[in-house]
Amino acid sequence: MVFVSLCLSSRLPVVLFPPSDTSHLGDKIDGKISTNYKWRMVVAYDGTKFKGWQYQPAPTPTIQWHIEDALIRITKLDRGDLCLVGAGRTDTGVHAFGQVAHFTTPFNYNNLDGFHAAINGLLPKEIRIREISPAHPEFHARFSTTSKMYRYKIYNEPVMDPFHRLYAFHSAYRLNPEAMREAASFFLGKHDFSSFGNVPSRNDGTPNPVKEIFRFDISESGAILDLEVEGSGFLYRQVRNMVALLIQVGREALPPDIVPKILEARDRKVLAKFSLSAPPHGLCLMSVKYDPEKLNHPSGAPPVSFGRTHTISKCKLPFY
C-alpha cells in the first residue's frame, strides 16, 4: 500500500493516511493529491562556532538553519514544505558525527549522488552530510529513535594539547579512571534523572525524567579519556551533568557512591552543590539508533548516497 505523508509541524510526528482517504488531506496541486517523499540524512558537524542545532532565524548561525538554507536553494521549496527534523537538538558548541535528520519533498529523485554533492557544496566546511537515503513514510528522525550514543572527551595532562582544545575538556587534575568507572556503573539501568536535567530554555513541555542507560564506558588512550554513554534518551544537559560529577569523582573529591544518593534526591539543586555542567566542546553526538524496520527503504526508491568517489582513469599529463 502506498501512503501519503503530511508534515504539519517540525515538532509533531508525521500523520499518515491512505490516498483513498482524501477527506483528511486537502493538499492538492491541479486537483491531484500531492505525495511527499521522505529522505533521511546522517550529518556531521564541528559545533564550535554555531548556536546549536535548533533553527533560529538569520543571522544566528545554527546547524539546522544552514542545512535548510542549502535545501531551499536546491529544491526551491520553503522550510514549511521541507519539514526538516533532527534526532537531537545539540547545544551551542556541541559536536556531532552521527546526527540524523529527515526532510520531505513533493518529488522523487532517481539518483541521490548529485543532490548529495550539491548540498555539501553549499554548506559551510564545518558541516557535512555523510549520507542521504530514502526513508520509509513512518520514519521520524526524532520520534523513531531507540537509543542515542554520546562521547565526552577529556584531555588529562598538565599542559593542554592545542590540537585537542576545540574537542576535549582539559583536566590538569590527575583523574582516577577506576573510580569514575565505578561511579558510572550506578547510572546503568532505568532511573529518574531529575537531578541531572536542566530546565530547557525552549518550550518542550515537561519531559519524562525516567530514562534508561544501556552502557557507560570509560576508556583510556594516552592522555585522552573517552566517556561513552548510550541511552534511550537524555534530558536537557543530562550527559554534561553526569560527566561533570564523574570528573569530581575522578579527582577523588567525591566517592563513587555519591551517584545513587544524588539520583534518589530527584532534585537538580542537590547536584549543583557538588558540580556544574561540563563544558560543551568535549561532547559529541556519535550515533542514533532505530528499529531496523523503520530504516527499510520504500520500493522503487533510489540507492543510498555516501558521496561520490572521484577517480582518474588515465593520466593526461606527460611524465618527464
Automatic annotation (TrEMBL):
Single biological process term from Gene Ontology: tRNA pseudouridine synthesis
The record's section on Pfam families has: PseudoU_synth_1
Q: What organism does this protein naturally occur in?
A: Rhynchospora tenuis
Mind telling me which SUPFAM superfamilies this protein's record contains? Pseudouridine synthase
Family membership: Belongs to the tRNA pseudouridine synthase TruA family.
**Keyword tRNA processing: yes or no?**
yes
Reaction(s) catalysed by this chain's protein: uridine(38/39/40) in tRNA = pseudouridine(38/39/40) in tRNA
- Main EC class of this protein? isomerase
Report the protein name in the record. tRNA pseudouridine synthase
- Record keyword Transferase present: no
A GO molecular-function descriptor = tRNA pseudouridine(38-40) synthase activity
